[in-house]
Records
---
Amino acid sequence: MNFEFTEDHLMIKESAMDFAQNEIAPSAVQRDKNAEFPYEIVKKMGELGFMGMMVSPEYGGAGLDTISYILAMIEFSKVDASVGVIMSVNNSLVCYGLEKYGSDFIKQNYLVPLAKGEKLGAFALSEPEAGSDATKQKTTADKDGDFYVLNGIKNWITNGTTADYTLVIASTDKEKAHKGISTFLVEKGTKGFGYGVKEDKLGIRSSDTCSLTFESCRVPAANMVWDEGRGFNFAMNTLNGGRIGIAAQAIGVAEASLDASIKYAKERKAFGQTISNFQAIQFKLSDMAVKVDAAKLLTFKAAALKDADKPYYKEAAMAKLYASKISVECALEAIQIHGGYGYVREYLVERYLRDSKITEIYEGTSEIQKMVIARALLDQK
Ligand code: CAA
């Protein structure tokens, strides 16, 4: 067992930290307030290799491991969790799945620009009546010659209107239930592909979330990812990696809550001394630090298993379950330490609470993670 990062890992962390501080942080408050998508930031992230971190250089990626990706995700999410989720979806849910399961045609035509950050991806699994119960896909894809015709609605799609390419999970054979589900890559602008209203969210406000509509939308059969009937396995397998990314996003927010609390505790005076002298505050800081470290250990363990090509779905669920829980807890404690100042927008900690909450919901709610863990423990998967 080795708890040391390599020189390369430390360099990635350093460069992500620099980018986060210099390029992402300065406009984060304004983007949260106005729900503005960070177009320029995402473009620069692509140029620096952060949008296809784990993709092989053969397909335009940076060829790095999951540990490097987690380190970068934490640094970016520390200053802006919205940037974290945009990056996470492109890396974990789109690029990873295309590299692992896509045909050569898909890799050359779609993965390369996605991994280079020239194009942005989205992942459309959820529906109005298929959230946690994801096998109940109502969106259909009917074969018609060299095309599939898509009809249906997708909900809560991150990068919804901004994505150039969207992976759409749809039923190709209702009779076969989840074994009759397939994945299609749909290009923006395809006739019959439309957008619902952009969601006005509690947190991660500068990320773009909306519903998607498909009305007789014709998609070339060559744009099917993996085989017909493997769409649900595709979604589950990519989500396992996605959950490690969301754990990292949650850790970034938790660490930001801890750092802000330490800084404030050293500055704020009450009863003639800084509040950092009070045991009530010290114990809160200690608890937060232990939680952040424990979440990191779980998340790096899941990432290391993935990098070693070993089973990691249970560990990914554990990492996401715990990291998202402590992210909300740390944000709440940060507000408590800041007192009234924590409750107003002038200080950043109220945003940390708003941004942390979603990590307990998307890419599988905490309840779903517990289900995945329990099934693994009981050997029911
Ligand atoms: N990894 C790999 N495969 C898995 C899996 C996992 N974690 N969980 C289930 N599967 C596989 C099973 O092995 C089975 O495959 P086979 O039929 O080939 O053997 C298949 O999936 C069906 O599994 P179950 O019979 O267990 O199905 P179920 O309906 O009882 O439970 C579920 C499935 C685990 C609840 C699943 O529906 C699930 O994970 N739901 C949550 C969905 C989710 O995470 N949504 C996130 C939306 S995307 C998003 O949020 C992105 C964003 O924009 C940020």
---
Amino acid sequence: MNIKRISIPQFEEVYSCTDPGSGLRAFIAVHSTRLGPACGGIRLWHYRSEEEALNDVLRLSKAMTYKAACAGLALGGGKAVIMADPNEPKLEKMLRAMGKFIDSLGGRYLAAEDARITPDDLEIIAKETRFITGLRKGSGDPSPITANGVLRGINVCIEEALGRTNLSGVTVALQGLGHVGFSLAKLLAHAGAKVTAAEINPKLTEKARKELSIHTVSPEDIFHVDADIFAPCALGGVLHQDNIPKLTFRIIAGAANNQLENQELNDRLLFDRKILYAPDFVINAGGLINIYVRDILKEKDVNTWLELIPKNLREIFSISKREKIPPGEAAIRLAEARLKS
Ligand code: NAD
């Protein structure tokens, strides 16, 4: 196994790893351990070049630093990427080599699940390292907790933008009925909200119609639903300069990562249009909070900790109003202040 350190300004540690025996080609970036060990998922993706994989791991690890700092957790930001074809069957020896790579950082990087890495893959990686979170015997599937955190965030948003203190009769257009989206739709429906959802997987659409009695529309039509809230719970980059000018929603609040195609420009565009945007890395922090509380603090009661999400959102909206800056920018300011303190 060939592990090489790469020097990148403003990143504490970055490594590349090639392991001809297993076929592993991977990077780990530790952006910051200023507040605690650098935590972040392992992403497996069909990167076209090492440069593309390196750029991704750098961008994602920095985002994790902001997410943890904004959430108010004693965690830093890190990430790992594996260069492989997601459609090929994963080789156990490659995942075990990844475990050895993670172990070589001695706990400064704490791994977790991310795109194309399943709970089964995590169990294999864990045979070679104890610096891994989100295992079945540990904090497990974070999705219901993430949905719970998003619901708490939505409650702050309706108070802020609609002057409402409960969700009864509030209309929500929800995109994606996967692990988080389905749980969120259920919580919203129980709270009295009127949910309209879109999902590309017909089995999930059917399940939601039957089990939750919610209305569904085609994926193209979800942006045109007459609703107070748009809750993106599918992919990133769904809001951009072409569709933001046409939106009629009052609030954007959902679980998806990187909802804005261009963070800075789209954050400003939403702000100028007076559409309240709950920064995704603040409102979807439930999964990270779950890991922190259950795997690191070894506590069981995540619920109390989830209150950090509404608390932080209130603070961000207050900075946004006071400084006349968009909420995404206010969230970054809050994170940077915590990193300096
Ligand atoms: P998931 O894959 O289970 O669900 C995503 C769903 O979106 C899938 O069912 C997919 O078919 C659907 N989808 C994809 N494109 C769509 C489209 N154009 N229109 C409608 N539906 C579409 O993933 P998940 O774990 O539920 O996560 C959802 C999002 O939240 C992701 O962006 C993820 O990164 C983010 N997130 C998840 C967690 C968590 O705890 N799982 C935590 C933080 C952030």
---
Amino acid sequence: MLNFDFTEEQLMIQQSARDYAQRELIKDVIERDTKALFPTEHVKALTELGFMGMMADPKYDGGGMDTVSYVLALEEISKVDSSAAVIISVNNSLVCYELEEFGTEEQKEKWLKPLASGKKLGAFLLSEPEAGSDATSQRTMALDMGDHYLVNGVKNWITNGNCASTYILIAQTHKEKGHKGINALIVDRNSPGITLGPHEDKMGMRSSDTHSIMFSDVKVPKENLLGGDGMGFKIAMKTLEGGRIGIAAQALGIAQGAYERALKYSKERKAFGTEIINHQAIGFKLAEMHTRIEAARYFTLKSAWLKDQGRPYGTASAMAKYWAAETAMYVTTEAVQIHGGYGYVKEYHVERLMRDAKLTQIYEGTSEIQLIIIARAIMNE
Ligand code: CAA
């Protein structure tokens, strides 16, 4: 059965995210971007609204919402402030999901509950200075010392790096086994031996908190192993399948936000005696933007729906992430163009959305990585 209607609950969640974004996030979003300020007060409010662990099971203090609701909420938040959206998506998709899916009951009680309720934030530590797209080439070592792991190495580009109190660390334990020797460990951020690099001064998503994280003889108790020994790479890959739905939703929101601003502007701005939307050059741009966004929306919702149905969604989420990120870049660039000189200054928001869009083509797997995943799936059909 093909049904494009949302449930009452899904629409309520969408409305709640829209209200908060349009009423509160918008107020100081330009200042946060300019000064690269973490949105501390907004994170508190978004926690109270239930967005930090929205998909986790209520028995672990989560919101128990479905992935479709998650997409709807992230789109609304990203229309205004995608830095706030990525804080939410990392905590939900990469940390809460991973703990709920692969953790023991004790681990869920201890680590998932504070994250799903939003009392604490989490971060996912996979990328390294020399292992980004090529994620099996992990150099961070977690040596098995009997009752604990001894961790040494560096992780890079970590979203929520400073604000998180719980890290999911992907590291190599049995080097000779390659990806089958990689483990996923739950790490308390206050463990002795952890230091952080400076806040990364990024092109976009400037108010999200990105750091490199150094591990020097950090002891991680054996009971913090997630899944089985050697399961870390598969756990990371499975987690990223869902993470990419979150980034697709974020890219969709950035594109929709820029499109709405461009549409409004083109109905108000006059040139050559008429509103610029009446010029075919602008009308065609808007039609192309709208059409690409609708396609991105269907891809993203379909991958969310597949996940909610318990069906395979890895290829669908790669397609959604690929198309939504490319669309965000395309649409934001056109939105700046439609605004002309006004598009190039901060006040009109579209230049910020354009800078933010760029990151959606890079993190949680570049566009090129998504094409690898899609190509491999086609080969195996
Ligand atoms: N689920 C489960 N297992 C999977 C899997 C999946 N989706 N994808 C691969 N695997 C398994 C494979 O089956 C294989 O296991 P076996 O040998 O037992 O069969 C193993 O993992 C290795 O797979 P590949 O041979 O396919 O590995 P590869 O080296 O060719 O790489 C890749 C595959 C898809 C390119 C992967 O390296 C990848 O996704 N790279 C991108 C990493 C990425 O997205 N990084 C983003 C960082 S996180 C981030 O940005 C967060 C943030 O802060 C916002």
